[in-house]
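Researcher: Structure for this, please.
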Amino acid sequence: MRVMSFPVMLFAAGFGTRMKHLTADRPKPMVEVAGRPLIDHALGLAQDITPSAIVANLHFRPELLLDHLTPLGVQTIVESPLILETGGGLRNALPLLGNGPVITMNTDAIWSGANPLQLLLDAWDPTRMDALLMGVSPERALEHSGTGDFTVAPNGQLTRGAGVVYGGVQIIKTELLAEIEDQAFSLNVVWDRMLAGGTLHGLIYPGTWCDVGHPSGVRTAEILMASDV
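Model: Predicted structure, token format:
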């Protein structure tokens, strides 16, 4: 196992509208799964790889996340007045993350199996990759519909299309963020530039993943976690 340390960016700024009543009084990352806030499950995976820093972007009901994350040593940055989306949010956090590659994590999923961050670190090759995304086979992607977001070639290069679901975890170089003129933008804009250059790569996760972006995902994730015990 290679020893490598990158900062981790936790995306925690969304409104969580698909969660309906569960986010009436809290941001989505504070919705509990198996007695712990969703963001704590992501944070545990991040802490396991001993990152150089952990940063979370906040927007909706930020005070609840500030109170929760600050004692845990997580640096936070509140997006106001606009929510900046994934690309804009990552760029906005670079003063805390530095200029090198960053691991980004969505905080609304549960992973069952090997730590996906460590798998990415083990496979990372900066000489040919500008980003390395963790994909999940559709049959292992619980509470997610559709046939996937990317096709993975034998050499790991990605193209758009059915094949694997993006699991919300990646290593990404950040230089291209400076080229985007919009203040708020999706990382898909950056990925498209990497796709054009053949530098967007992916792995297929060997375990199971559960999308906890809507209420039914909470129970499914808890059943998945119980099966690991």
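Researcher: Any notable elements?
Model: The mean pLDDT is 95. The CA atoms of residues 56 and 212 lie 18 Å apart.
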